[in-house]
Amino acid sequence: MTDWVLRLIDAGGYWGIGFLMVLENVFPPIPSELIMGIGGIRVGQGRMAMEWLLLAGTLGTTIGNYFWYLVGHMLGFERLKPLVDRYGRWATLEWRDVEALDRLFGKYGQIVVFVFRFLPAFRTMISLPAGLFRMGHIRFLLWTAGGALIWNIILAYAGFALGRHFQDIDRYLGPAASVCVVGAVIFYLWRLATWRPRG
């Protein structure tokens, strides 16, 4: 995958960065750490400018997240009730839990979206409930872009500082993301086994 990302960045420049960051958020197996890290390396080599790299990366991230927001927005909060009534056991949810999430997004949606931008495994997935619970489009886009910009600055400057050694970070980031995913699966299985509806 690294060679494919490298070829696309070198062929497409900032457009390649933006396109890859859209893909990374629509199909999460493509790592943003790799994309923006390589971009940072190219800045260090004088082949890209940091401000344009960050603009392309942040726009791509925001567009990719907006895709999942729109999926949630089209599904809509109201259509959830029959799904929760029928399949709530597998999601370990009751309708009162969904109403509580709706209130949470109504009060703190922007903070939730912003904070999730820094989690290694679930940065994109927060966009779906943000759309489901009708977080405002502008609020979602601004907080997503803000969180994405900070994350992209960290990754791009890491690539810039570490140069070609940046790819060594993948040895640590890959396992860290895997640990988060495995932990989430274990937590879900435990919750599924112990969950009892309150109704």
From TrEMBL:
Keyword tags: Cell membrane, Membrane, Transmembrane, Transmembrane helix
InterPro entries: DedA_domain (IPR051311), VTT_dom (IPR032816)
Transmembrane parts of this sequence: 12-31, 52-71, 111-133, 140-160, 172-190
Subcellular location per the Swiss-Prot or TrEMBL entry: Cell membrane
Keyword Acetylation: no
GO cellular component term of the entry, any: plasma membrane
Limits of the VTT domain: 30-159
Main localization (coarse): membrane
Membrane-topology annotation of the record: Multi-pass membrane protein
Pfam families: VTT_dom
PANTHER family: ALKALINE PHOSPHATASE LIKE PROTEIN, UNDECAPRENYL PHOSPHATE TRANSPORTER A
Name under which the protein is recorded: Alkaline phosphatase
